[in-house]
Amino acid sequence: MKIYVYDSNSLLESEFAPAIIKCLSLMRGTSVDLKKYVDEVTDGEYYFLMDNTDKGDICVGCMRYSTIDKNLANMLRLNKTSNVIKLVSSVFIRKEYRKNGNAKRIMKAVYTAQPKLLLEVLYDNTPALKLYFKSGFRPIDRRKLKDTYIVLMSTCETCIRYKK
Ligand SMILES: CC(C)(COP(=O)(O)OP(=O)(O)OC[C@H]1O[C@@H](n2cnc3c(N)ncnc32)[C@H](O)[C@@H]1OP(=O)(O)O)[C@@H](O)C(=O)NCCC(=O)NCCS
């Protein structure tokens, strides 16, 4: 298996685009338009783990990082962090490939490219919390969302500055 890294333009032109669309559609639970997916985060780096099988190329999972947008920075009361910290999102591994270290592999590649990372995760998503903890993220805050909580985690606690 191999990790492929794209920016928004190269992702749209990738030879793996059909396999990647299948993986993203599984992640979102609905048919994904790759152009619209890329338009959500045009300044991002996109990571995909590919497996070459006798049935063809399979996209095993994904991850991306991007600049923290103003809305999220405001919601989190963050102060001037967007130029230092990148937001991790779209973390997903296909069911049949889970619990095999695959998410850790992609996270390591993301972390190597960008060590100052931030993400949000539901407080009861145990597999994801364990993955992030083992990948060097530590909880730094939480916020309420309807009747649940979202945990804010970062690899760089000292980079986080809150607005007063
Ligand atoms: C979270 C997710 C990406 C983990 O992918 P994965 O490839 O199975 O993770 P890994 O095999 O790399 O495991 C990383 C660590 O997570 C923990 N973990 C993974 N699956 C777990 C499970 N079902 N229960 C408990 N811990 C689990 C383990 O501690 C593991 O470390 P270890 O191998 O040293 O024991 C995957 O479960 C997934 O795609 N979930 C659905 C999407 C999602 O919830 N994404 C997160 C959104 S914030």
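^ coenzyme A complex. The chain has a mean pLDDT of 94. Residues 17-28 form the longest helix (12 residues).
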